[in-house]
Automatic annotation (TrEMBL):
GO terms for molecular function: DNA binding. SMART domains: HTH_MERR (SM00422). It comes from Streptoalloteichus tenebrarius (strain ATCC 17920 / DSM 40477 / JCM 4838 / CBS 697.72 / NBRC 16177 / NCIMB 11028 / NRRL B-12390 / A12253. 1 / ISP 5477). This is DNA-binding transcriptional regulator, MerR family. Keywords: DNA-binding, Transcription, Transcription regulation. Residues 1-68 form the HTH merR-type domain.
Length: 118
């Protein structure tokens, strides 16, 4: 399939697909006239990229998890060597927890300020 069809099937944009390719996460074949050609597996890869990115992972993280992007379903047993994956997830979890703590502090300040204003 070509890039427009993959974008439509996965609910993303051609720009995002090109970005994933630039980041080394998606590797399309090229036709004789230079068009990108994706196989059926590309749908799963794009869905997994979007799933992991929505969970807070970065494209740098995803490059470390590249084998996991092709796995179906994504889960703890879908990657061949879990060690580097565990470290990536632990690091990302720590970053997310820090963000959550910061947001809770901001929320508490806003609640306090709102109480003062009332």
């Amino acid at each position: 399939m070509r890039i427009g069809e993959l974008a439509r099937v996965t609910g993303t944009t051609t720009r995002a697909l090109r970005y994933y390719e630039e980041q080394g996460l998606l590797q399309p074949a090229r036709t004789a006239n230079g068009y990108r050609a994706y196989d059926a597996n590309a749908v799963r890869v794009v869905e997994n990229i979007r799933l992991f990115m929505a969970a807070g992972l970065t494209t740098d993280d995803l490059r470390l998890l590249n084998g996991c992007l092709r796995a179906e379903p994504v889960g703890p047993h879908s990657c061949s060597d879990p060690t580097p994956k565990i470290e990536v997830f632990e690091q990302r979890l720590a970053v997310l927890q820090q963000r959550i703590d910061e947001l809770v502090a901001v929320r508490d300040q806003l609640v306090g300020r709102l109480s003062e204003l009332r």
